[in-house]
UniProtKB/TrEMBL annotation:
Its EC number is 6.3.5.4. This is asparagine synthase (glutamine-hydrolyzing). Keywords: ATP-binding, Glutamine amidotransferase, Nucleotide-binding. The gene is asnB_1. It is an enzyme of class 6 (ligase). SUPFAM superfamilies: Adenine nucleotide alpha hydrolases-like, N-terminal nucleophile aminohydrolases (Ntn hydrolases). The keyword Cell membrane does not apply. Belongs to the asparagine synthetase family. Residues 2-203 form the Glutamine amidotransferase type-2 domain. It catalyses: L-aspartate + L-glutamine + ATP + H2O = L-asparagine + L-glutamate + AMP + diphosphate + H(+). Pathway: Amino-acid biosynthesis; L-asparagine biosynthesis; L-asparagine from L-aspartate (L-Gln route): step 1/1.
Length: 601
């Protein structure tokens, strides 16, 4: 895991060093800067494979140069294939395999590699740059382009100087709690979408972006449940195994949930020695599932470390959150993620995680909500519109957000989209239609749950979960690897009948059946509490003064398109315990900290 940088802007080397230094946590082991023709390539290295200096970057093979962030998990197989073709290698790294693989196959190398990656390759012979981002968007890729001048980087902070704020992106953030790709907080700065590559022709000063992977139309396999369970189990074992390749200590995150328990159990069985596992707990027992994780650890025989998170810990981490999440980002579980990685780094440099399992195997609460409210959504819209009055809702005792949403949305697709976006709730007026980039979910499947899962993967997984994990881990120079985000697992899960994954309210059915081979069902079949801290309670009590002082009129008046009257109303309702508005208040609070950090006052 590293940081990459590339530009054709003629910056002094001292300025390039300053830019890289601002995100040096991504790669503290070595900083490499190389000038080639009119380009500057930069790299921050976190050494994982082949720790020798021979694997420093930028790396060169004949006429091609590379800066690469990530891991190619099947690099040994590709290396063997290239050796058979007569290529020679100077290192034991996956970087050189990627570089020589591009030399042999060009852009088709992307179809051969299995990994998480963002990289730039410069070919001096063709005077072209070839860049790509992995299929699920695990690794970040930002680029600035204006009139043929460009910068590419793993994070946006080095690209922000002298840039104007993208006011539409502020509205997107207030809707989603993140800024969805391809947009960013700055004008003329973009995210390369997952599963895409970009070619820059330095002669014509033009670039083009092309997709090399995406979700596709669901073709449900004719397979028995037992065969599916065995095939999935074998696939997960392989996905874990290839992610255990490392020349530095490796461990696993372990919560009270199914996904991390399964990943950690498989890793523990594969490993020749007891693995290290790590979990976070909260001093509020209503949110704490660390005791369940400790039960898992005892069964699998891991060396386990639990860290309890308090409101004081959260307050101390807020500056760190703004520092490393250099776009506004309001998933509050980023805070315990930061704490978890800070503890993990004391013991290991690489950690496995269970991220991605909920998307493929219907693990989130909103999948239950879709099923429970499906009968409402299927009522003709004019009737639902009448039923949505507050009076009638009170009469039937269904005054919940999801039921209101089901009654008031026109279509099933609208109901699905509202899971991930509040669609103008905090805004004066609706702005840029960012959902236009995520409409594929409507055509890939006719199944209600699969549609939601696909939008979960395309919109939320990339922009929320992956961004959270990448920044929280990189903040402490930890590499996180997620077997459930192996694209083979994603594709296999989508090919299974829905009843194998979700049946009669039983989420992750097939994963539970596999986990029973490692952990007794009565141990793991306990209520999951999630990973978000009790921010809502803290902002009413321990952190109240901090929130009130930050959310003052001076700041609120500077936020474009914010409905200030409405926000003040919900802030008062929350503080007086009339309603829970935690998520929306947290969004605006995080934005206030971002404004202060980056000087947009």
């Amino acid at each position: 895991m590293c940081g990459i940088y590339l530009t054709n802007i003629p910056y002094e080397e001292s300025l390039v060093k300053e830019k890289l230094e601002s995100i040096s946590f991504r790669g503290p082991d070595y900083t490499g800067i190389e000038k080639v023709n009119n380009l500057t390539l930069g790299h921050l290295r976190l050494s994982i494979l082949d720790l020798d200096a021979r694997s420093h970057q930028p790396m060169i093979h004949e006429n091609i140069h590379i800066v690469f962030n990530g891991e190619i998990y099947n690099y040994k197989d590709i290396r063997a294939e290239l050796l058979a073709k007569g290529y020679l290698f100077k290192t034991e790294s996956d970087t050189e395999v990627l570089l020589i693989g591009y030399k042999e196959w060009g852009e088709d190398v992307l179809q051969r590699i299995n990994g998480m990656f963002a990289f730039c390759i410069y070919d001096t012979a063709s005077n072209e740059i070839f860049s790509a981002r992995d299929r699920l968007g695990v690794k970040p890729f930002y680029y600035y382009w204006e009139n043929g001048q460009f910068e590419i980087c793993s994070q946006i902070r080095p690209l922000l100087k002298d840039k104007k704020i993208n006011e539409d992106a502020i509205s997107m953030f207030l809707d989603c709690k993140f800024i969805p790709s391809p947009y960013t907080i700055a004008e003329n700065v973009h995210k390369l979408p997952p599963g895409n590559f970009m070619k820059i022709d330095l002669n014509s000063k033009e670039y083009k972006i092309k997709e090399f992977w995406n979700l596709d139309y669901v073709k449900t396999r004719n397979i028995t449940y037992e065969d599916a369970k065995k095939e999935l189990h074998d696939l997960l074992i392989d996905a874990v195994k290839i992610r255990l390749q490392s020349d530095v200590p490796i461990g696993s995150f372990l919560s009270g949930g199914i996904d991390s328990a399964l990943v950690s159990s498989i890793a523990a069985k594969i490993s020749d020695t007891p693995i290290n596992t790590f979990s976070i707990g909260f001093d509020d027992p209503e949110y704490d599932e660390s005791k369940i994780a400790e039960q898992f650890a005892r069964i699998m025989g891991s060396k386990h470390k639990t860290t309890i998170c308090s409101s004081e810990d959260i307050l101390k981490l807020i500056p760190k959150l703004v520092e490393v999440y250099d776009e506004p980002f309001a998933d509050s579980s980023a805070l315990p993620s930061l704490l978890l990685n800070s503890v993990t780094k004391e013991h290991v440099t690489v950690a496995l995680s269970g991220d991605g399992g909920d998307e493929s195997f219907m693990g989130y609460d909103h999948f239950d909500s879709l099923i429970k409210n499906k009968f409402i959504i299927d009522i003709p819209y004019p009737i639902r519109k009448v039923l949505s009055s507050s009076f009638l809702l009170r009469m039937i005792g269904q005054n919940t957000y999801r039921v209101k949403n089901a009654l008031r949305t026109r279509t099933r697709n609208d109901f699905i989209e509202n899971i991930f976006s509040r669609k103008g709730f905090l805004l004066k007026e609706k702005k840029q239609d960012y959902m236009k980039h995520y409409q594929g979910y409507k055509k890939w499947s006719s199944n209600f749950l699969q549609k939601a899962a696909d939008l979960n993967i395309k919109l939320w997984l990339e922009n929320d979960s992956n961004a959270k994990v990448d920044r929280a881990s990189m903040a402490y120079s930890v590499e996180v690897r997620s077997p459930f985000m192996d694209y083979r697992v994603i594709e296999f899960a989508r090919s299974l009948p829905m009843s194998f994954r979700y049946e009669s309210g039983r989420q992750k059915k097939i994963l539970r059946e596999i986990l029973k081979e490692y952990i007794p069902e009565e141990i793991f079949n306990q209520p999951k509490m999630g990973f978000a801290p009790p921010i809502g309670n803290w902002m009413r009590h321990e952190l109240k003064e901090e929130f009130i002082s930050s959310l003052n009129d001076d700041f609120l008046n500077k936020v474009p398109n914010l409905n200030i009257v409405k926000f003040k109303t919900i802030l008062n309702e929350h503080m007086t315990e009339k309603h829970d508005h935690t998520e929306n208040i947290w969004k605006v609070y995080v934005l206030s900290k971002w404004y202060k950090e980056f000087g947009f006052r």
